[in-house]
Amino acid sequence: MNCPSRNDDTDRHPHWNQNPPALTADLTTRADLNGIANTRELDGAEHSNQSDKEQDKSPRDAAISRAERPAGAEQEQEKEPGRKAFTLSSAPQEDPHGKTSFTHFAAQCTRRLREILTKYSRFIGPGFLIAVAYIDPGNYATDVNAGAATRFAHLFIVLMSNLFAIFLQTLCIRLGSVTGLNLAENCRKHLPRWLVIILYIFSESAIIATDIAEVIGSAIALNLLLHIPLIAGCAITLVDVFVILIFYRPNGSMLHIRIFEYFVMALVLGVVVCFCIQLSYIQNTSVGQVFRGYLPSAEVVRGNGVYLSCGILGATVMPHSIFLGSGVVQSRLRQFDVNAGTVDAPTAADDSKSLDEKYRPSIAAIKSCLHYSVVELAFSLFTFALFINSAILITAGAWLYNNSEAAEADLFGIHNLLSTTIAPIAGTLFALALLLSGTSAGIVCTIAGQMVSEGMLNWSVRPWLRRLLTRSISIVPSVIVAGAVGRQGLNDALTASQVALSVILPFVTAPLIYFTCRSHIMTVITAPSENDAREGETGSAGVNMRNGWIVTIFAVLIWLVLVVMNVALLVLVGLGKA
Predict the structure, then answer these.
(1) How far, in Å, CA of 224 to CA of 227, rounded?
(2) Residues 6+ apart with CB under 8 A from 253
(3) In this structure, are residues 26 and 50 in contact, taking their beta carbons and an 8 Å threshold?
(4) Which residues lie closer than 8 Å to 172 by C-beta, 6 or more apart?
(5) Class of residue 548 by CB neighbours under 10 A (exposed 0-12, middle 13-18, buried 19+)
(6) Rounded to an integer, what distance in angstroms lies between the CA atom of residue 140 and that of residue 459?
(7) DSSP labels, 143-168
(8) Which residue has the higher pLDDT, 96 or 79?
(9) What is the pLDDT of residues 248-289, one digit of tens each?
(10) Angle, to 10 degrees, between the axis of helix 424-457 and the axis of helix 411-421?
């Protein structure tokens, strides 16, 4: 009986088979009672029925059925829209050894991994900018003092500080991505004016304390390498302002931003290379001794250990890095929305817009960029920042522990001890790493100071003048301190600046935790869906991205640890024990 499934005009399709074999049930009217439309609707059911029939057949009958099927049937089925070619999915299963399916799976994994790495490479940069804040010259003074006093015991504080930094910086990225504003701008938008002024005083004090470390460290490095006087070295550090004026434009093109980021990355990698060479000179120290330092120890709180611990904490989780982390992620988000055609490209006029008029990322940009930004940040901090801080302390602990000269040595003395104890090249590498760290950290500190002043005070002056003023506010006290204390007091000034940063840190992190826990701040406004539009609902929907309960609990616990350590520090200082 002739019962073709395609009973329309066959003049234009002479290759259609009008008498298919009886075993091809999917091509007969018994499986397709109403043409191809029914097959599209019942494709799943048809496939299950066909699979049941194939299971009832013996392997020999199934092979004969496949052999009797017309040669063009499978090709025609692939050409028809709406049909699924089951032969493609079942092909890898025909290999008895599974080599075809494994190769297919491996190719898919390789392609997916390549796509992820390609996308991740576009996010490399902001994490290095933030990591620079954790390897400034203040870290050299505190880490060297800790290594010389307790050898490797304070590596636990270094590790804990980096974990705290990663957690807090993740909150910064979430805040900057969801609101489109940095922490300083969120303070001005959501907090009363009197509280903003208090926070600005604390924040600007932190910027000044940070810049003291950058200026002093760079001046000492220039003096060690080129024998430049300290006061002249402090003045030379103003050069980084011109670097920022030329390259860094927050609302400029991605090309300028990437060039600036690569410049800072080169400085960071230079520091890493210097300390890799330093570590290669260490002798008579086992790996087990070093790694035991990452475990908790009573030495971190015994005697002067609390003072050193707070110095490391302040030098690692620096207040200005909190503002920086919330303000360097918007460029990738905006680039995503510009490519999607939802917003216009950034212009110079964006600087004069109010907070309500500024760019706010779309939910698509946030979902596409947030996880990559967090991973890039965590990788940069946990590898480069943790490595450099650990390398400084390990070098000091290996060569300067139980050394009476190292106990009271400043950065000049550390340079001399490394040159005489290890080799002259070791002292030179130490000074070079100090210079690179001071230069990169000074640039990043200027950016953070700009964010603080612009965000909290809303200055209405030209960008270049605003950057010059914010840099001057922090560098003038630094030059005065460097000139007043002289060479003998520079190391004490460095350590004291890091302790001051630790005291200020709870005041800066409290607004960050508060903002990221509030639904009305961390809600992304989205356009109404098509169904809502049909039903006449014109209101905007929202996606709540505030912290969950677990994240909130961890944030509060970290904040309490910071408060307790600083209270203990102030008590010890008041009693004269630190």
Answers:
(1) 6
(2) none
(3) yes
(4) 183, 322, 325, 326, 512
(5) exposed
(6) 35
(7) HHHHHHHHTTTTHHHHHHHHHHHHHH
(8) 96
(9) 666 666 777 788 788 888 888 888 888 888 888 887 788 888
(10) 150
The three-class DSSP label of residue 28 is: strand
CA distance 368 to 366: 5
Tokens of 252: 């400029």
Q: Is the pTM of this model over 0.90?
A: no
Q: Are strands 33-35 and 523-526 parallel, antiparallel or unpaired?
A: unpaired
Which residues have CB under 8 Å from 278's CB, separation 6+?
A: 391, 395, 418, 422, 426, 429, 430, 433
pLDDT of 31 reads 47
Interatomic CA distance for residues 472 and 192, integer angstroms = 27
Cα–Cα dist 37/41, whole Å: 7
In this predicted model, what pLDDT tens digit does every residue of 445-487 receive, in sequence order? 878 888 888 888 877 666 667 667 766 766 677 677 767 766 6
Pairing of strands 523-526, 541-544: antiparallel
172, 209, 322, 341 from 497: Cα distances, Å: 24, 5, 17, 47
CA-based end-to-end distance of the chain: 103
pLDDT at position 229, please?
83
DSSP state of 4: B
Q: Which amino acid is at 390?
A: S
- Tell me yes or no: is domain 122-348+358-530+540-575 CATH 1.20.1740: yes
Q: Got the DSSP string for 445-497?
A: HHHHHHHHHHHHH---S-HHHHHHHHHHHHHHHHHHHHHHHHHHHHHHHHHHH
- Let me know: does 249 contact 346? Beta carbons within 8 Å: no
What kind and span of H or E run contains 409? none
Spell out a b/e string for 130-158, using b for 16 or more CB atoms within 10 Å of the CB, else e.
bbbbbbbbbbbbbbbbbbbbbbbbbbbbb
Cα angle: 310, vertex 312, 316; to 5 degrees: 115
Q: How is residue 361 written in tokens? A: 């990322």
CB atoms near residue 104 (< 10 Å): 12
Phi, psi of 358, deg, nearest 5: -70, 165
- Write the CA distances from 153 to 412, 452, 537, integer angstroms: 24, 35, 62
